[in-house]
Design brief:
single chain; 152 residues; 2 domains
């Protein structure tokens, strides 16, 4: 079992480093043939502990992480867009959205301007605004890179 845990730990660490290098969260599928073969060779009773499956993985996690992390409730991750748009990135957002309706043509320019000027009232509004900021920045980058191939 220690051989399996060692291989799993190496896979997880490798994936973690690669993902963090490009700001991507990844999850390692357990498809390494030797890991699969070893796990299949175990009796089912070794794969379950206290009624919970994935016992070898749970033991590995207990050896790597503090109990407080392992027992906390699941948590989602949301970018703090409302804070960004109320503070340091407000000007970036306004600049990105200025003239967007003229460039793309699917937005109501006056409505977009009214919506963009005040700080977002809710996290949902902030998320929507940030999506438009991302669209605007992508659109302009694509037009600079290949203006003849981008729809106008």
């Amino acid at each position: 079992m220690s051989e399996l845990l060692s291989r799993l730990e190496k896979c997880v660490l490798r994936l973690d480093r690669m993902g963090m290098a490009v700001s991507v969260e990844g999850r390692a599928p357990l498809l390494d043939q030797e890991v699969v073969d070893l796990a299949r060779s175990w009796p089912a009773s070794d794969l379950v502990e206290n009624g919970a499956g994935k016992a070898p993985l749970r033991r590995l996690a207990r050896s790597l992480y503090p109990r407080a992390i392992l027992e906390r409730p699941k948590m989602g991750f949301c970018a703090p867009t409302r804070s960004w748009l109320r503070n340091g990135l407000r000007d970036v957002a306004v600049e990105a959205l200025e003239g967007l309706a003229d460039e793309i043509g699917i937005f109501d320019g006056a409505g977009l301007a009214r919506w963009v000027r005040p700080s977002p009232a809710t996290a949902r509004d902030a998320g929507r605004m940030w999506t438009l900021v991302s669209l605007s920045r992508w659109w302009r980058r694509m037009r600079r890179a290949a203006p003849e191939t981008v729809l106008r």
